[in-house]
Amino acid sequence: MSILSEFKTFAVKGNVVDMAVGIIIGAAFGKIVTSFVGDVIMPPLGILIGGVDFSDLAITLKAAEGDLPAVIIAYGKFIQTVIDFIIVAFAMFMGIKAINKLKHEKAAEEPAAEEPAAEPEITAQEQLLTEIRDLLKQQHRP
């Protein structure tokens, strides 16, 4: 099988399309969470701790010189990103928990699977034919 045909088989499988849709939805969800944290959660939190704007929190390592920008460590943006992550992780946890609960409820509603039928008993004739077959196999081995 050529690499091109292997790639074609891979690319047209449903799970690749599902993964692409998941990535697109995840990116959109990330933007929503970033806005929620930056525009809704952080301003009141900043007021509670004395009017601090987290996005402005930074340590200047080297001041700007001429055309060179300042070198800073923007730890406020890092704090905001950590809060974004916690919200996304919690939302994912709650979503997976809900899906698992639905699966569990659905499994409980389904009737129990019937026990498989017992294998039919082997007749004396079938047993004899099986033994003959096994003996013939042993004779033809080198």
From TrEMBL:
Keywords: Cell inner membrane, Cell membrane, Ion channel, Ion transport, Membrane, Transmembrane, Transmembrane helix, Transport
Membrane topology field: Multi-pass membrane protein
Signal peptide (UniProt feature, chain positions): none
InterPro entries: Mechanosensitive_channel_CS, MS_channel, MSC/AndL, MscL_channel
TM segment ranges: 20-38, 70-96
Protein location: Cell inner membrane; Cell membrane
Family: Belongs to the MscL family.
HAMAP family: MscL
Assembly and interaction partners: Homopentamer.
Purpose of the protein: Channel that opens in response to stretch forces in the membrane lipid bilayer. May participate in the regulation of osmotic pressure changes within the cell.
Protein name in the entry: Large-conductance mechanosensitive channel
Organism encoding this protein: Thiopseudomonas acetoxidans
